[in-house]
From TrEMBL:
One of its GO terms (biological process) is antibiotic biosynthetic process. GO terms for molecular function: hexosyltransferase activity; UDP-glycosyltransferase activity. This is Glycosyltransferase. PANTHER family: STEROL 3-BETA-GLUCOSYLTRANSFERASE (PTHR48050), STEROL 3-BETA-GLUCOSYLTRANSFERASE UGT80A2 (PTHR48050:SF13). InterPro entries: Glycosyltransferase_28, UDP_glucos_trans. It comes from Tunturiibacter empetritectus.
Length: 426
């Protein structure tokens, strides 16, 4: 079968989607990955066929320029900016270009990232079967649990459910600019207005999340086509990252990274470094990305290693603790190695992931706006010294090994497309 993959153009989405694409390719399917030019190197590094689209609207280097302002933001500002300045123009370009790509390539079925909000209108209009794979934390629109953009604890009281429902409305409101673009496409395609109802465009064949069921909040009333799979990573298919391995001194390792997008908050890195300076019994590896000049963070602990990019999977295999922005991929990769965490959620789905880290007792979560050397140091010491955090992380290590995320996701996709069910335009 000729299967097209459309991943959101960010590393936290590209890595799991390309791993899944490789799995289906290994099973004999012809896999084609469709993406903006900035995703080409990551897709080709995974050994996959790359087809560019939206080249005029998003030429090489444009994503870095579009994302640059959010490096210093946090909270709802990150979400609002991204929806208006990235999601909406990307949706407009994709609605324009994707139909031609699908027609020219003869793609028979699609695997889509639902963070490409409303892009499923294209395969609906073209009667192409599609499944959705949640690389970020999935959204519970029922109000049973808090929407992922908030770090609210999971509670079941009527007041909490009402709060959650109002939170879902806030999520929908932030997508207003994307909804405008979707409406233009739907009107031009002759799709009826029913598609705007929440959940109406969700795949009827399969919706798959890489979050293990055991790591989610309980009690969510998912539809029958919703599947928990497990992490979609396989330690392969990533561009190589140089690292000074000879500088590791054998002390217990703390690996710290605040992601690749919202990673320009100086005070967060300084809090981590100042806390590490008080912990002479450990060694810190800090990955700062491209938004921070490492020289601006001095003085640093004498044995700390500061890099712009790090081979995360390899370092997590050696780590005693991970300090993370609570991106879902980093969180699941840490748990896959049995590594507890100190989470500092900054934006997007990170508050929801951090809330699950706290709920399942695999780490601590700290508020980015109130982050200091003192509370960072206290959290690090608690997680390192309290064995229960590592015990819980090792429990999830066993869970993740048992879930076989890639195999389960590939099975569900093949089963979904085997039915041959194509749903008519709504």
């Amino acid at each position: 079968m000729k299967i097209g993959f459309i991943a959101y153009p960010a590393s936290g989405h590209l890595y799991p989607m390309t791993a899944l694409a490789r799995k289906l390719q290994a099973r004999g399917h012809e896999v084609i990955c469709i993406g903006v030019p900035d995703t080409e190197s990551a897709i080709r590094a995974a050994g996959l066929t790359f087809i560019p689209y939206c080249e005029q609207e998003f030429p090489s280097g444009s994503l870095a320029e579009a994302y640059a302002p959010i490096a210093k933001m946090h909270g709802m500002k990150v979400v609002t900016y991204t929806c208006e300045k990235v999601f909406a123009p990307l949706a407009r370009a994709a609605f324009k270009n994707l139909p031609r790509i699908l027609q020219d390539t003869g793609i028979e079925a699609l695997v889509m990232d639902p963070i490409h909000f409303f892009l499923e209108l294209v395969p609906i209009n073209m009667s192409i079967p599609y499944v959705q794979v949640c690389c970020a934390l999935h959204l519970d629109a029922s109000g049973t649990t808090p929407p992922f953009i908030f770090n609210w604890p999971h509670e079941t009281t009527p007041e909490a459910v009402s709060r959650n429902v109002e939170g879902v409305h806030q999520v929908v409101q932030t997508l207003s600019q994307v909804l405008i673009e979707a409406t233009h496409y739907a009107d031009s395609a002759g799709l009826r207005s029913a598609w705007q109802e929440p959940g109406s465009t969700q795949s009827k064949l399969a919706v798959i999340t890489q979050t293990p069921k055991e790591f989610d909040f309980p009690g969510i009333p998912w539809p029958s086509q919703f599947h928990y799979a497990g992490p979609l990573h396989d330690d392969e298919g990533r561009e190589p990252v140089a690292f000074p391995w000879e500088k590791l001194n054998g002390k217990p390792l703390i690996y710290a990274s605040l992601g690749t997008l919202v990673n320009g908050l100086d005070h967060a890195y300084k809090a981590i470094l100042e806390a590490a300076e008080k912990l002479q019994e450990v060694q810190l590896v800090l990955s700062v990305g491209l938004s921070i000049n490492p020289d601006d963070l001095r003085p640093t602990p004498p044995d700390a290693i500061i890099v712009r990019a790090a081979p995360q999977l390899q370092l997590l295999k050696r780590a005693a603790l991970c300090i993370t922005h609570a991106g879902l991929n980093t969180t699941l990769e840490a748990l896959a190695q049995g590594v507890p965490m100190v989470a500092v959620p900054i934006g997007y789905d990170q508050p929801g992931v951090a809330a699950r880290i706290e709920y399942h007792r695999v780490g601590r979560s700290l508020e980015i706006a109130a982050l200091t050397r003192e509370n960072m140091l206290e959290a690090i010491r608690e997680v390192l010294k309290n064995w229960s955090y590592r015990a819980r992380a090792r429990y999830f290590q066993k869970v993740i090994k048992r879930t076989r995320g890639l195999e389960v996701a590939a099975d569900r996709i093949e089963e979904a497309f085997k039915t041959g069910t194509i749903f008519p335009p709504i």
